[in-house]
Amino acid sequence: MTIKELIKTLSFTLLAVLVMRTAAFATYYIPSESMVPTLEVDDRLMVTKWDYGYSRHSLPYGLGHYLPKSDTRLFGSLPERGDIIVFDHPLQPGTDMIKRVVGLPGEKIELRQGRLMINGLTVPRTMMEDYAYADQQGREIRVRMFNEALPAKDHIIIERSDRGRADNTPVYQVPDGHVFMMGDNRDNSSDSRFPSLSYVPLENLIGKARIIHFSLHTCPHEAPHLTCAPRRFMSLLD
Question: Which domain holds residue 65?
Answer without folding.
Answer: 3-236
